[in-house]
Design goal:
The complex is a heterotetramer, with two copies of chain A (244 residues) and two copies of chain B (526 residues). Chain A is α/β, with parallel strands linked by helices. Chain A contains seven helices and ten strands. Chain A is elongated, with a radius of gyration of 23 Å. Chain B contains 20 helices and eleven strands. In chain B, the strands form two sheets. A nine-stranded parallel beta sheet of chain B has the order 7-6-5-4-3-2-10-9-8, with helices on both faces. The chains are: A alpha/beta (244), B alpha/beta (526). At the A-C interface, strand 2, helix 1 and strand 3 of A face strand 2, helix 1 and strand 3 of C. Bound molecules: cobalamin (2 copies) and pyridoxal-5'-phosphate (PLP) (2 copies). The site of one pyridoxal-5'-phosphate has 13 residues of chain D, from helix 10.
Chain lengths: 244, 526, 244, 526
């Protein structure tokens, strides 16, 4: 079956759960508004199962209903891994064989974001999810600049160290901070490398959409639950591959 | 972690329960029902239904009743007819009788002897099949093992379609369910026959049929082997066909059955005499099948208040225990029910829950109590519901409950979604793993809030038992003592299916189970 | 402001939460499908914040996102109370004054539904939400037939007792049981009263849409949280009113 | 419900903390920072900023530093300049100095005396204003009353826009928050100046400015009156402007301030010397303002493991206590931090949490501990998150925490929605009302799991203190002892803003607070 619908307790019953707050007092009108909104989302029938006034001016709703929409899996853009998953040994071999020198990897948390756990999970030997971080890879020279790094500092460092790849983490997403910062970074890098080879630009963070790389002007986006090996494999595949 | 209750008070409570229950048992012993008789035929091997889905056991019992009455039981007329060559076997006899082509009579003298013997052999054969399924279960448990720990995790599926139920039940087992219950379509309790075959059209539950039992048990056997852990199957011996369902459960190796002495009366408006009579025979079969019963005290707290009605739960548990043991069930088969139904907005509600749960635990130390989740105070606020279920799980762990029925955050909304069940199981796992052993540090102060409350409830239970002893249980039920449901003794569905036994009444199955039958046959059968 | 949007933590941020299960294994494609579905619901941007495989063949998702839809309050059909809320005394006075006899009210739970708490909450003296039930109203003759009542039994009783109003409860909604049963009831009543006055037909239950009365062929629907006084007021207003 | 810890061990732990902390205090006493000097000017009444938003205190301090250096403090050059008529008041002086139109000098002899006196009077006036706000608070509490019970419910708002924060803070208070914290924009810690005015553009938090403080405090005063309960306001004395924020907090009657001795070093990469110096002065001001500080040990557990790192929390609490008391804070002002951050999948995780929370409770019996909710192990599974928060609340209740920071089910997703906060508060209410008094029945067995674990952690803490005493605190920080963050003493932001004090260094505020100033002025001022 290529077309799927949500599953509550029977095939194709289409059941979904929704919750939201409306900036109006809890009354019959509010319930009506919630239902109307649910219908616009495609819930039909929709039932408001919970209504709770939050202070005098807001109302929180829980709605259940049958979703009229469905998805054709054959039309779903899948962010499948487009590179082979290698072992650390294979990654090192690839780099040695193709790049014929150690790969220079620069990592940082830009802007005012101080969330380093994510980038450290990828870079530090300690690693993540049972996998060792990039520092563990003999053929990689990893420089972790830490957090709150200004974009131009980072670009300067990249040029100074002849970085092959620049890895940046963005965890704070309120007001799309991560998107703004990423675009700013992309512009700066492209400006700094008007012609000729430039380092691979990789961003990561829990709230990124892996599909948005092109749109944000970077080469690759890694999101929730990324493991170091995925990143290493991507680097080996892309850089070493290119060099070959 | 128990309460130390005053043991003479506890003994008094049990003695009062006996005095309240005995007259009801005597009444049940003096009667039979259409469903009891049909159960006898089912155990003797009769199954199937006519084109309209009316089962052959119904046809045969109705025919016998029409011609010679049921006060003697179906056994004598039926096996007499067979011996007289009216038909080659029960099925043929049923079909012919449906066509009005059988002459039944009440055999006497020598004929009666032979008929009795033949019936006994047939009954023994049936009970032997039930026993065989029990042995089968014991073998599988010996091979695969029981759940690693208490409480057993009990999950419900209720899609109405056995073919949706099966994958959901298997998914539930894979995610940690030790017991899977398939609840029944809203209507089944009121049907005076057991539907046939695999069914797909239940409302808020799936019909209990022999075939559905078989399909689900087979599916669970598969996961049991896959998981290396015997996953138990539960259904409901309840409603107008209680004894027949009990028989089918024994024949299809179900492992637990919901079976309460009063649920049908209170919540299905089934006639009290009918219920008590059906129940006694159903429990005798459960005892033989090695099935664990679950009683329904939890239901009372959905219609009555869980604090002011707490003692009615205790009284009902004591009565269920008395009736169960009288019917031959052992302590390990008594999944006495209680529930986490106190208004969560009541101050100290959680401590009150602990007090009530501890009381049950301490009153019935050897019974695998069935701990039911919050339902009445669940609302569309699924987040709050998920939290309440977490505290329900904690209370279960702290008070050492035996069977934990997993609560669903969507209790007030829908019959559980697949995802609700998964979330619910992870809730249980978190609480049991993170805080399960907290009992070590949880010591109700001897005169503290919890111990005091537990003793108060026990005291109220004893007072109520005194009152019931004076007025009789039927009066108490008529007055709405349990769950605030008023059910007069002479009302309710299925009354016309109840008959006073005649002198020469014969129930070959009961005779074997009660050991009053000729042991020879029994051995012959075993 | 007549047009409202969901409120997360800032006006018009449109934030909503959604959860559902898809009948496919947890993988990149599943995430893509979930996102696609969320977009169809109008979430943009949408983020899948939680993915959990439920067995081998199903995946549960939690999605957050900004809803592009909004509701114009002026266009929301409001199920406002279209009758005055009276005190028991006023109700009794109304009935005495206008109907000039006690009002005969019949209550039941039809089909195989055994949930009586709801109808009892409305009918029994005990009542609900601090309000006494209809049995408490001197000018009403209430007959509560209890649960699991067959439709024709109910209709027969209505005719026998010359019921002014028939109140029915439906709590079980799986497979739209409540809707089927309600329609069946409506048909039976209309058939039984081909011409001339027929009793008011009122259904209630937690999952009914109060707006669906006409569609279901009944006179009034009461849903979640109804209190006896509302029902009594409606009866007095409609029946006594009509009689006047 | 406490643990009885071995009191000599406890005494040893405190003694070791003193030995570890003393050298750091000496170091802090020997230095000043640009922010300390700006705080002095702010207390003396200087505020406002130029057209680009650079505050006048920054201009004035930079000018003085450029001309005569800061090693003597700003006070002498500044009041000397005023006495020499270079400007009519501080503001004018700052504006002129920004334009390079002021000649500063280091007064000597008689001139120095007069300048010192004038500075002292100005400082005293400032401190008197702070004291007045404190009296104001005490009066309001006397009139409206404190929260009816412990723990105080602490909620965060973080829209980035003060005008969205205000209604949300008021809503939170109405729904039961006793304390409201406005967290700061991600960037503020690194700003070397305090922004001015009402702000609407913070990221994941709202800028801390005098005007935002004033607006929010006024809004909370309104609800406090509406609710008949004094609602406290919290912000963050953290980052490069710690002392200035502390001064503004005192002037605008904030009630609590996040103020940790190491957070800035570890999580903002601020220079250790800068942090310790700023911190000491900031805490002296907090002491005077009657503000309760909250320390940040909870943060360590987001980068280090909550089990293996448990003892680092204890060590840090002991150090924070030492530094706080040295700066003049009393026990009731010490909201020492700890958190519910153990991996929930770890067996017995909840009992481990209880052990750690009880240890803190028992080590600091008179401090209003700040109990922080799970964050690190919160995921997009908001249902599980809501459950974890419930167990966090239970642990807080069972172990008698003083300040309970309300956890949000969306912790891993977004800064809290309005509805998240409401749901979270109802979670807290349920747990406290339903199970809050469960402590009565919760008695950790003397040699049981919980007591044993608590003593193990205390033991590890003492070993670590021994090691730190040997190597020095700065070395320990450099080696990543706390939160696994390695922060060498000579690195980090804001180092250039630190200066060794000269012989004739003058800080009129500190002198008054340390009681070394001429009491006459103090009285004159008081
Ligand atoms: C730990 C933590 C902190 C710690 C950070 C310590 C440190 N040195 O990192 C402390 C306590 C200091 C902190 C502070 C703040 N935090 Co914080 N914090 C968190 C928390 C609890 C966990 C984050 C984490 O460590 N996740 C674990 C890592 C391993 O996961 P990850 O980051 O997603 O990384 C993985 C993938 O995303 C990917 N990845 C990530 N980056 C990269 C980069 C590359 C190149 C690649 C290939 C992959 C990759 O790989 C990693 C492994 O799979 C989250 C809540 C939560 N549970 O998520 C809030 C959270 C992130 N914090 C938040 C906020 C707002 C703050 C503050 C700004 C609050 C304030 N105003 O004071 C402060 C200030 C810090 C700042 N200026 O940024 C918000 C962000 C809201 C939003 N979505 O915008 C969150 C979501 C909490 C909340 N709901 O409010 N925080
Ligand atoms: C109590 C209860 C029971 C009790 C009923 C006891 C009794 N005598 O009523 C018992 C334990 C017997 C029971 C059994 C079953 N139950 Co039940 N039960 C509930 C429970 C926990 C509470 C219902 C309740 O009493 N609410 C309180 C009353 C006051 O609220 P209310 O009914 O909404 O009524 C209010 C309004 O709706 C309105 N109203 C209602 N009716 C009417 C009528 C009129 C005329 C008017 C004006 C107003 C009105 O006014 C009332 C006051 O405001 C709900 C779960 C839940 N928390 O909602 C499940 C629930 C209703 N039960 C359910 C099911 C499936 C069953 C069973 C069928 C399960 C099974 N297969 O065995 C059985 C069989 C019963 C049957 N055949 O119907 C499902 C229904 C699922 C669905 N939506 O389809 C629920 C939702 C639980 C679940 N999630 O699975 N149940
Ligand atoms: C003891 C008991 N019996 C029976 C049932 C339900 O079975 P029925 O299908 O007869 O309503 C329940 C429902 O929970 C129960 O608790
Ligand atoms: C003790 C302490 N100080 C400061 C902060 C945050 O303030 P800043 O804006 O400096 O990051 C926190 C964050 O939780 C904290 O715990």
């Amino acid at each position: 079956m290529s077309v799927v619908r949500p599953y509550g307790d029977t095939t194709d019953d289409g059941m979904v759960q929704v919750s939201f707050t409306l900036p109006i007092p809890p009354d019959a009108r509010a319930e009506g508004a919630a239902l109307a909104l649910a219908r616009k989302m495609g819930l039909d029938p929709a039932t408001v199962v919970h209504t709770r006034g939050v202070g005098p001016d807001f109302t929180f709703f829980v709605v259940y209903g049958r979703l009229t929409h469905s998805v054709d899996l054959s039309e779903v853009p899948v962010a499948e891994r487009d590179f082979p998953l290698l072992t650390p040994a294979e990654v090192n071999r690839e780099i040695r064989a193709r790049l014929r020198r150690r790969m220079v990897v620069l990592g940082a948390c830009i802007g005012t974001d101080a969330h380093t756990v994510g980038i450290d999970a990828i870079l530090n030997v300690k690693g993540f999810g049972g996998e060792k971080g990039l520092e563990y890879y003999r053929e990689m020279a990893v420089h972790n600049l830490g957090s709150q790094v200004e974009v131009d500092e980072l670009v300067a460092a990249a040029q100074r160290m002849h970085a092959d790849a620049v890895l940046v983490s963005q965890v704070v997403t309120q007001r799309d901070a991560h998107l703004h910062n990423t675009r700013e970074l992309a512009d700066a890098v492209h400006a700094a490398y008007p012609s000729g080879p430039r380092p691979l630009l990789i961003v990561g963070g829990p709230r990124f959409d892996p599909g948005a790389a092109v749109e944000l002007g970077v080469d690759k986006i890694f999101a929730r639950g990324t493991t170091p090996r995925e990143v290493a494999s991507y680097l080996a595949h892309t850089l070493a591959g290119a060099a070959a | 972690m128990k309460l130390d209750l005053d043991q003479t008070t506890v003994a008094l409570a049990r003695e009062l329960a006996r005095r309240v229950g005995e007259p009801v048992v005597d009444m049940a012993k003096a009667h039979t029902t259409t469903s009891v008789e049909r159960a006898v035929l089912r155990l003797a091997g009769l199954s199937g239904a006519d084109g309209d889905g009316l089962p052959w056991p119904n046809h045969l019992v109705d025919a016998v009743r029409a011609q010679v009455g049921l006060q003697h039981g179906v056994a004598l007329p039926v096996w007499d007819a067979l011996l007289r060559g009216q038909a080659g076997d029960l099925r043929e006899l049923a079909e012919k009788s449906a066509a009005g082509a059988v002459q039944f009579r009440l055999p006497t003298g020598r004929d009666a002897e032979v008929a009795r013997a033949a019936a006994g052999t047939a009954a023994a054969a049936g009970l032997t099949r039930v026993r065989a399924r029990r042995t089968e279960r014991e073998a599988m448990i010996a091979e695969l093992g029981d759940p690693p720990r208490r409480p057993w995790i009990y999950l419900i599926v209720a899609t109405g379609d056995i073919y949706e139920d099966i994958p959901q039940a298997q998914a539930a087992a894979r995610e940690g369910a030790d017991v899977v219950a398939v609840i029944r379509s809203t209507g089944q309790s009121l049907l005076d026959h057991v539907p046939e075959g695999a069914t797909r059209e239940g409302y808020a539950g799936t019909y209990a049929t022999a075939e559905n039992f078989r399909l689900m048990r087979a599916a669970l056997d598969d996961v049991s082997r896959e998981l290396g852990r015997y996953v138990r199957l539960t259904n409901y011996a309840s409603g107008l066909c209680m004894p027949e369902i009990a028989a089918l459960a024994g024949l299809e190796r179900l492992d637990m059955m919901l079976n309460d002495s009063m649920y049908g009366i209170l919540f299905r408006d089934i006639n009290p005499l009918r219920t008590f009579t059906d129940q006694r025979f159903a429990r005798q079969i459960h005892a033989h099948a090695g099935i664990i019963i679950n009683t329904g005290e939890d239901n009372y707290l959905t219609t009555a208040d869980a604090v002011s009605g707490a003692h009615t739960v205790t009284v009902s548990q004591l009565l269920n225990e008395y009736f169960a043991k009288e019917a031959g069930l052992a302590d390990w088969q008594l999944g006495l029910g209680h529930a986490f139904e106190i208004d969560p907005d009541l101050p100290d509600s959680f401590r009150l829950e602990l007090a009530h749960a501890l009381l049950a635990r301490s009153l019935f130390p050897d019974a695998p109590l069935k701990w039911m989740p919050p339902t009445k105070h669940m609302t569309g606020d699924i987040f709050r519901g998920y939290l309440l279920d977490g505290f329900f799980n904690l209370a279960g762990a702290l008070t050492g409950q035996g069977i934990l029925l997993v609560g669903m955050m969507t209790e007030a909304v829908v019959t559980p979604f697949l995802s609700d069940r998964d979330l619910a199981l992870r809730n249980v796992r978190y609480v049991l793993d993170a805080a399960g052993a907290l009992g070590e540090d949880f010591q109700p102060a001897p005169d503290g809030f919890i111990a005091t409350r537990a003793n108060t409830v026990l005291g109220e239970a004893i007072d109520l038992l005194h009152r019931i002893e004076r007025d009789s249980l039927l009066t108490a039920i008529g007055e709405g003592t349990f769950g605030l449901m008023r059910r007069p003794a002479d009302r309710g569905r299925g009354r016309d299916g109840v008959l006073a036994k005649a002198e020469d009444y014969l129930n070959p199955v009961a005779d074997l189970l009660e050991g009053t039958a000729d042991p020879a046959q029994w051995k012959g059968a075993a």
